[in-house]
Design goal:
Length: 234
């Protein structure tokens, strides 16, 4: 993940149990932080400059003060965490929980928690529509669940071609890009009509993506052929 307000990239090195702060201009690691045994999902609090780290080793979330590389608090999670995001409008951390299927909302200010159930199995990828207060939850059950973050209610589910991984929301075009590795496609969801309105063929096993909001480009990394495909949104 990228902390643009600090100018560095934050990466979870799950194998070593480290959080890496990377200077992309200098192309080097400038700091290593400890945050549990198997850090996975990351979310950056833009207000307090704190980092939430969801750990799959002990099913917990740790909040770190990045200035001092210290754990401020540790929160037990109801199950194995996956993707995490920070919602600046509601000042919440959102953490996907594989089972029980749902999203845990954690107040960044008070650390109060509430669980939002998801009808599809296995929440994985996660992104938010900050303007509308919606969370998009990509699930192993071949669907995207759409949640109203403020009320915690599920608004809709959108069927997908397979089990998705990471997802990216494009606030300009109101579209959601869902990479599906096994089928080798990206399903594109119209987030206004809540339907898949486009499907792009990629490559079997391609499940890692990145979206450049400024240039309106989707990058799909192709593991079998050791390439990356770049798609322009037109």
């Amino acid at each position: 993940m990228c902390a643009q307000d600090h100018g560095f990239v934050i990466a979870a090195a799950r194998g070593t149990g480290k959080i890496l702060l990377i200077d992309p201009m200098a192309e080097k690691v400038v700091r290593e932080m400890n945050a549990g045994s198997r850090p996975n999902g990351l979310a950056w609090d833009t207000i307090r400059k704190r980092l939430l780290v969801a750990d799959v080793g002990d099913n917990s979330a740790r909040i770190l003060d990045s200035s001092y590389a210290q754990v401020v608090t540790t929160i037990s999670l109801p199950g194995r965490p996956r993707w995490s995001v920070y919602d600046p409008r509601l000042d919440l951390f959102l953490v996907n929980i594989r089972e029980p299927s749902g999203v845990l909302a954690i107040s960044a200010e008070s650390e109060r928690e509430r669980f939002m159930a998801v009808s599809a199995a296995g929440p994985h990828g996660l992104d938010i529509d900050k303007e509308e207060g919606r969370a998009f939850v990509a699930c192993d059950g071949k669907a995207v669940a759409v949640l109203d973050v403020e009320t915690g209610k599920e608004i809709a589910t959108v069927p997908l071609a397979g089990a998705p991984d990471a997802i990216w929301y494009d606030p300009l075009m109101k579209r959601l890009y869902c990479a599906i590795g096994r089928e080798g496609v990206v399903d594109v969801v119209d987030t206004l009509g809540l339907v898949v309105d486009e499907q792009t063929k990629t490559e079997g096993g391609a499940h890692t993506t990145a979206f450049d909001t400024a240039r309106q480009r989707l990058y799909v990394f192709l593991p079998r052929s050791c390439r990356a495909s770049v798609y322009d949104e037109v």
